[in-house]
Specification:
mainly beta; Tumour Suppressor Smad4; 13 strands; elongated
């Protein structure tokens, strides 16, 4: 070795520099946490992850989704049973499968969120409300006939009409009052 105790190879050249660890985010961990395995063993990366303010609506708020085809109710969904509903063509992961070819595999989400607002007296009041989020789908999502901007939460109210892609099915959100 060298006089100062450092290891020097016999030919006198300094040892190769050690590779330094890279702690920069690679995105692999994030992709891993958003990956689900379907019943047939396929791995699917989810486009959407629920936000921290995600909540199931309270039982007193009996949110429902009525599905219409050609003016007839073909399905009624109790939205209060979960905090998030994924709408899409991929039946292995969608909570509300929609088979129309214009609908993306992961098209849109109905997300219940706890939102606090300050009233005119400065009181903070909170509640769980449904929001619609288009997952930047190819053919878009409509709320009451108007196209929804992709990747933005839009509050949904009782009586609102949702449509996905070019499907003729209409989805009406209702909050029946006792």
């Amino acid at each position: 070795g060298g006089e100062d105790g450092a290891l020097v190879p016999h030919d006198g050249r300094p040892p190769p520099e050690k590779k330094q660890p890279n702690f920069a985010p690679t995105g692999l961990l994030a992709a891993e946490t958003k990956t689900v395995t379907t019943s047939d063993g396929a791995a699917v990366v989810l486009k959407y992850h629920e936000p921290p303010e995600a909540r199931k609506p309270p039982p007193r708020d009996a949110w429902k989704l009525f599905v219409f085809k050609n003016g007839d109710i073909v399905d009624t969904i109790d939205l209060g049973s979960r905090s998030c509903w994924l709408i899409g063509r991929d039946a292995s992961i969608a909570d509300l499968p929609a088979e129309h070819p214009s609908i993306s595999k992961q098209h849109a989400v109905i997300q219940f969120r706890f939102v606090e607002k300050t009233d005119e007296y400065g009181e903070r009041k909170g509640g769980v409300k449904p929001y619609l989020l288009d997952l930047e789908s190819a053919n878009g999502t409509k709320l009451n006939g108007g196209k929804v901007e992709g990747a933005r939460f839009v509050e949904v109210r009782g009586g609102d009409l949702l449509a996905f892609g070019d499907s003729t099915r209409e989805y009406v959100v209702m909050l029946p009052k006792d």
